[in-house]
Structures are given as C-alpha cells and as structure tokens.
Amino acid sequence: MYCTRKVQNDLIWVGADDRRLVCFEGVYGVPDGVSYNAYLLLDEKTVLFDTVDKAVYGVFLENVAHALGERKLDYLVVHHMEPDHAATQELLLSRYPEAKVVCNAKSLAMMKQFMGCDLTERAIVVKEGDTLETGRHCFRFLMAPMVHWPEVMMSYDETDKLLFSADAFGSFGALNGRLFADETDFFAEDIDEARRYYTNIVGKYGPQVQAILKKAGKLEIACLLPLHGFVWRSHVGDFVEKYLLWSSYAPEEKSVLLAYASVYGHTENAANILACMLCERGVRVRMYDTSVTPASYIVSDAFRCSHLVFAATTYNAGVFVTMENLLHDIAAHNLQGRKVALIENGSWAATSGKIMRELLAPLKNMEFYEQSVSLKSALAQGQEEQLAALADAIASEIVPAAPAQAAAPAVPAPDAVDKKAFNKLTYGVQVLTTRVDGKDYGCIINSACQVASGEPKKLSVSVIAKNYTSEMIAKAGKFNVSILTEEAPYSLFQRFGFQSGRDTDKFADLPYEDRTANGLRYIPEYTNAVLSCEVIEVKDLGASVLFIADVVEAKVLSGDPSCSYSYYHAHIKPKKNPAPEQKECWVCKICGYVYEGAELPDDFICPLCKHGKDDFEHVVPVQKQKQKGWVCTICGHFEPCEGELPADYLCPLCKHPREDFERAER
Ligand code: FEO
Fold first, then answer.
1. Long-range pairs for 619-627: beta carbons < 8 A, 24 or more residues apart
2. Which of 29, 230, 453, 522 is spaced 20 to 30 Å from 96 by Cα?
3. Among the atoms of ligand 1, which is closest to the Cα of residue 148?
4. Which range among 305-309, 320-324, 403-407 shows the weakest confidence by mean pLDDT?
C-alpha cells in the first residue's frame, strides 16, 4: 500500500523510511533509521525528483504509481547517482518508458557504470544555469560537485522557491511520519543526527559546501527538500546557519571532546580523573570510549567541540587500534582549527602520544598543548598534578576568567546604596565601566537588571563575550552601571558603543572624570543613577557573558527619565534620509530647460529658447542598483554581503555578533 505525503498541492513526497538498515554506506550505524526522499511534481508535465535505495523499492513504486494516478511520467530528474538514491532508477525507467532523464553529463556516465546501459537517447543533459519548464514551474539547475559526489546537482524552482538540495541539508533518522522539520523539536531532538550526518557524509568537503551555500545565498528559499531527513518549509535560515558553521569547521561550542582507548582501564582511569577536573572547573565534557562508541558519533562531536583530548594506550608499538581508527577518520574528514591535548600510556615503550600527534598534526590549524601526560602502566602518585595542570590550561581557554577580586561577600557601607537608584532601571540603555591596570574601559549595554532585592542587592549584566569590556570586568571583578536618560546624545552611544577599548581610549577628551568609591569612572552627564557592583558569579552564555554582582554603592544623579531601548531606537538613533527621487525628463541642450516626463511630444517647442525636440536630451535616471547586505540592529552599520555572514562575524563598529544583524538592501 502506498504511503505518501503532500509537500504542497502539486508536490508529493514519494520516498520511504528504512529502519532495518544497520549501517548506512556500510559504516555509519543508523539506530534510528534513515529516510530516502523522492518527490513527484504534478505540473503540466510530471517530474520525479530522484529515486530511492533498493531496500524500499516496493513501496516507492507504489507511491509513484499512486501519486501519478492515470498520468504518465514525463521526467526523472537525477540529482545524485549514489545508489541510496539511484538504485531503483533502472526499474523505474522500465516502468515508465516515455520518461526522459534529466541529468548532467557526469551522472549520465555513472548510469552506464552502475546499470550497464546507455541512456543517452532518453537523456536531457543539463549544466549549470540550464532550466526545465514544466508548466507553472521553472527549474534551474545548480551544480554542487562533491556535496557529496562529483556529479551532484540541485534544482531550484523559480516559481515556488523550492530548493531540491540533494544530500545537503539531510539528516540521519527515519521520518516516522514527520515530513517537515517543524513537526518535531528539531534543534532539541534531531540536531545531533543531522550533525552526525553532515560531518560524516560531507564534512570533508567544507569548501565545496561553502561554495554551494554561496550560490544558495543568492536565492530566495521557501522550502528545502533534501534527499534524507526533514523537509524545511520554515526556519530555513536556522538550518542553513548550522551548515555555514559546520562547513567552516568552526566549533559549535566551547567544550571538550574526551575520547580514550583503554585495554585494562588504567588509561580510562586517567581520562575519568581529567574529566572530573574539567567539570570542576566549569568545562562541558563529552566523553567516549573508542572501543564502544562508533567513530561517526565521536567525529560528529569533534566538529562540535572546541577542544579535543585523546587518551590512548600503546599497542603493538603503535596506538591502540580503535583510537588509531578514530584519528584516521577525523583526519579523513578534514577537521581543522582545534586545540588538542594528548595522554599516552605504555608499560615499557610509550609511543601512542607521538603517533596520535603525527596523525593529527598535518590537519590545518591544529594546536597541541605542551602539557601532554605520559603514563607508565597507570597514573602514578603525583601525576594528578599533571592532569590538573592540563585541566587548568584547558579551562582557562573555555571558562570565562573568574573575577580576580571576588573574595569575601561585599558589605556595602552604611547609606552607600540609595534604593531609589534602582527605580531608574528599565529595559533601557546603560554605560558599563570598569578599570584594569590604571586604564578605564566602558561600553553600552541594554541588559542591567536587578536580580535580587535582599541585602546586598544583586544586579546582573550580560556583555558580548568578545567585547573587551567583558574581558576587563572578568579581570577587575567590579563594574559601574551608569543609567542613561532620554537626553543622551547619539555621540555618547558612538563613543562607548561603536569602537573598541582594545585600540581606543573611550574616555579621551571627556570634560569630567567622576569616580565612585570603588575607583571606577561613571558618566555624570545624561544619566540619572549609577550603581557600583562587585562580581560574585560569571556565567558563560556562549556569545555573551553574564556577570552577577553585589551592589555596593548606588546613587541617584538626576530626575530625568531613563532612556528605554525603544526610545533610543525611535528618537536617538539617526534615521536614514531617503535618497531624493530622480525623475525621467528631457533637458534642452540649448538653454537647460527641463521638461518632466517620459515622452516629449514631437512638436514640442522649448518655452524659453524656442528650440524643437531635436535639441532635447532624454534623461533617464539610472536605477540605483540596490546592494544586498546585512545591517547591524545595534549601531546601523551596513555590511555588503550577498550570502550569509560568517558564523564568527562581529560588527566592526559595535562588536555585536551576527545574531544582531538583519538582512537589508541599500
Ligand atoms: Fe544520500 Fe550521497 O547519498
């Protein structure tokens, strides 16, 4: 019995789930199954996009027959020749002898290789940019070599903005009835299998994926239709963003992958101790025994984590086989830009550390910790210190620095805290200041919030992690919050918000140098209160750092209303002036008289110099080419960019991350 789902009125999913497959491509375990997606379009012409693996050919053929009804099949579009999508081509084409095969030259050659038959007579061979009109729809073909084989191509429907993306944007896991990604809690429940699919299937080809993402970035995409996994009809950008990140090899999170290979448990013991030490230091650890967990899962987390620790025993004068396989696999997938620590073990001649390093060293931008740990059979008395030193080194790069001066709980001086100062807090804008080594730092925030009203009162501020002020507060352990009023001029926002304290003294030329009792500067103008705080807790929020602090001093500076974030956007941030409109006109070449309009009558006589139409020049305003890009919602900086901004992009003015940008055309 057929089992299909409607993608939209004229497009039917005719694929199938496979839950009996043990290993996809013979190597990647798929405990949750996998789907082979194929789609049938019912336009004036009928088009089948790809076929399926032979394991599910029965239901697939029923699906196609049911979806077609009485109609014949006009075209089979072949995006990818790997047999999980092409194994049933021959059978399909024998059932529908009138169907033409739409493919590129590489696919045509592979058809002969796989099936032993020459389909040239039935083929419509397409190349980059060629189109296929099917009635209401018009498909444009985009070549996507090495995503994941050289013949791969995609189809873009100019009409409904559908992108048939072949293996790209696929995922492991059977659909289980949920055709669309919005029918599951994808980013909570399914993202791991999507990452494992990406990293293992196309992870090696990051530059090629980036190339097709660049092409796709120029397209309006309403729906992504991959050959495995969910169809994306909403939040397409969220998933594309993941692909941008993965294909750049940038880690998804600051965390540690700890993989170990242990024969009798001693190497495992050292790995466990290190894991405990890392967790005690606030580091997130993902840990695997390479003899138990299949490599594809560990490779996937190697792409995810910023730091990698490998611990392995020496075996046959080499490195233990499961670790050796894993590292070969990681190298084969071209991982790059990670910080690596190694723990070796050997009872008489430990060589595993050297070999592990040799396997990973050729990869691009891999850095190794000097603190490698060498065990002789087992962790010896005193070697915990080596592990602790390694844990310290790793944690110092992952966990925001503990506040240098967060010692005893702050005890505010009597009457130092004016409670009325808290009444000035709104969802507004503030200047955050601190001081390290005799230098003052500051930035604009919109996050100051009272989080506890007991004594001492507590305030939290969140600051962009890459913002220099954030780094300085972590060192200083204290900060001031000056609450801005509606009178604050835009220049104040430019001063503290649109430049970096790394290379600029933001306080230069200010006509005042007011400080609170803690020695930090505050802003006495255009502010209505200042709160002095001592940091008691630091939380890594990924792109931002949250500082929770005791308020040790608070004073009201004026009765002016606080500047809310919306007030800033509505009344302080400058509005762009629309460019004056240019009109089509005719200009007299003799006297300069301007006749507005597209058409100048043949018998027109210049009212000034009395010359005729022949002496007029037709002026057509040049249609200003709009430039595509991204605009920073914080400071208004416009970044010309056709596609997506890089995952680690920071606004050059205000240093906010790309999450604070929105698409714009100027
Ligand atoms: Fe899903 Fe590359 O095949």
1. 619/584, 619/585, 619/586, 619/587, 620/584, 621/582, 621/583, 621/584, 622/582, 624/579, 626/665, 626/666, 627/665, 627/666
2. 230
3. 2
4. 403-407
User: From the CB of 79, is ligand 1 less than 6 Å away?
Assistant: no
**Closest C-alpha among 308, 296, 370, 298 to residue 337:** 308
Q: What is the DSSP letter of 116?
A: S
Query: Does residue 18 contact residue 46 with C-beta atoms inside 8 Å?
Result: no
Higher pLDDT, 93 or 413: 93
pLDDT interval class at 579 (50, 70, 90): very low
pLDDT at 619: 84
AA identity, residue 278: L
Find tokens 């789930």 and name the residue.
17
- Answer whether 180's CB lies under 8 Å from 231's CB: yes
Residue 406 banded pLDDT, cuts 50, 70, 90: very low
- Say yes or no: CB of residue 656 within 6 Å of ligand 1: no
User: Ligand 1 centroid to 167 CA: how many Å?
Assistant: 5
Tokens, residue 523: 């802003």
Ligand 1 neighbour 167 (Cβ under 6 A): yes
A 10 A CB-CB count for 32 gives 14
100 Cβ below 6 A of ligand 1? no
- The pLDDT tens digits of the residues spanning 495-538 come to 888 888 877 889 988 889 899 999 999 999 999 999 999 999 88
Closest atom of ligand 1 relative to the 25 alpha carbon: 3
